[in-house]
Design goal:
The chain is an alpha+beta fold. The protein folds into three domains: 3-100, no CATH class; 105-222, 2-Layer Sandwich (Tetrahydropterin Synthase, Chain A), CATH 3.30.479; 249-314. It contains eight helices and eight strands, in the order ααβββββββααααβαα. The strands form three sheets. Strands 5, 6, 7 and 8 form a four-stranded antiparallel β-sheet that branches. It starts with a helix and ends in a 26-residue tail after the last helix.
Length: 336
């Protein structure tokens, strides 16, 4: 339970009771029925109400994520040099406490009108080193440094979001984007760009009593002209890739046809070489056969006549031989 509010509530109730007692005393006095010791009772309640009021206004309870700066007319600089931590505190009547939350906060700037802290298009317009205009959506997660609450109060009070975080983020993003080309921003150097922004923003916030928890590059949008040129480039690249695939397909088909033709030619050569080799072997065999025959005839000249006769048809009975023929006939063929 919040003791500060309990005491203030009790003080308020005590004042109502005091006022009620005064009214009752006045009414009874008008009716000639004065209350016994009414003045003393009213005085006691009044003193009690005053004490509760003083105590109530002097008690301050801070939540775990809160720190307080005591604004005091009793010190020369106008504030206590040490901030109040979480818990219940007593301040002198006349002093006030300025509360600051140290929990993490997120500030978002987006092109979508209902996503950012400011309704409408709140994206950061930046220009790349090659002159292209881009629109950056970003979120900054930060908190107030609890050890620098007094510094934040003196320099910014509650204006640190609108007058420090927002303008610093937008300026740092624009400066960082201007160091890169548009192709680098959206692809090869995006991580490097984010790291550069984070480092610069962390330093700037730390100098002003804030802690950077994280920086998020949420989205990058192009101008309509550049988006159209990117689309046309992608279409051209796709067409070029398709043409390369067709050329590669035709090349592979031609290579396949060449290999098939080479295979047929090689097969024809092999077949021709085989036929030629077979003919050579056949000729060699014939030559060898003739050599053997010639050798046999040289040893037995009449063998040729005998072979001739044995090859005659079996139904031949009479053979007319010319005079002086050298054929030798077997006896069964000679007429008796």
């Amino acid at each position: 339970m919040d003791l500060e509010n309990v005491v203030k509530g009790a003080a308020t109730l005590a004042w109502f009771v005091t006022i009620g007692l005064v009214a009752l005393a006045v009414v009874n006095a008008g009716r000639q029925r004065p209350m016994k010791r009414a003045a003393a009772l009213v005085g006691v309640m009044a003193v009690f109400s005053v004490l509760l009021t003083i105590i109530g206004f002097g008690l301050v309870f801070l939540q775990a994520d809160e720190r307080g700066v005591v604004i005091s007319p009793y010190v020369s600089q106008g504030y206590r040099p040490e901030p109040l931590g979480p818990g219940l505190h007593w301040i002198i009547p006349g002093e006030t406490v300025k509360r600051y939350t140290i929990s993490k906060r997120t500030y978002t700037m987006s092109i979508a009108q209902d996503e950012g802290d400011i309704y409408g298009d709140d994206s950061i317009t930046a220009r790349t080193s090659d002159g292209q205009e881009i629109f950056v959506d970003a979120s900054v997660i930060f908190s107030v440094d609890p050890t620098k609450i007094i510094d934040v109060h003196i320099a910014w009070q509650n204006r640190y979001i609108t007058e420090l975080v927002r303008p610093q983020v937008r300026g740092i993003i624009r400066d960082a984007v201007s160091q890169y080309g548009v192709e680098e921003v959206v692809s090869t150097k995006r991580a490097e760009l984010t790291a550069s922004i984070t480092t610069a923003l962390e330093t700037k916030l730390e100098e002003n009593g804030l802690i950077l928890v994280d920086f998020v590059m949420r989205n990058i949008t192009f101008s309509e002209e550049y988006a159209y040129s990117v689309e046309q480039k992608q279409i051209a690249e796709q067409l070029a890739l398709q043409a390369e695939l067709i050329v590669e397909q035709k090349r592979q088909e031609a290579e396949q046809a060449r290999q098939e033709a080479q295979g047929l030619a090689d097969a024809a050569v092999i077949a021709a070489e085989g036929a030629a080799e077979a003919r050579i072997i056949e000729a060699q065999a014939e030559a060898e056969a003739l050599r053997l025959i010639a050798a046999a005839l040289a040893d037995n000249p009449s063998l040729l006549q005998y072979q001739y006769i044995t090859k005659l048809a079996p139904d031949v009975k009479v053979i007319l031989m010319p005079t002086g023929s050298q054929f030798i006939l077997p006896p069964e063929l000679v007429a008796p």
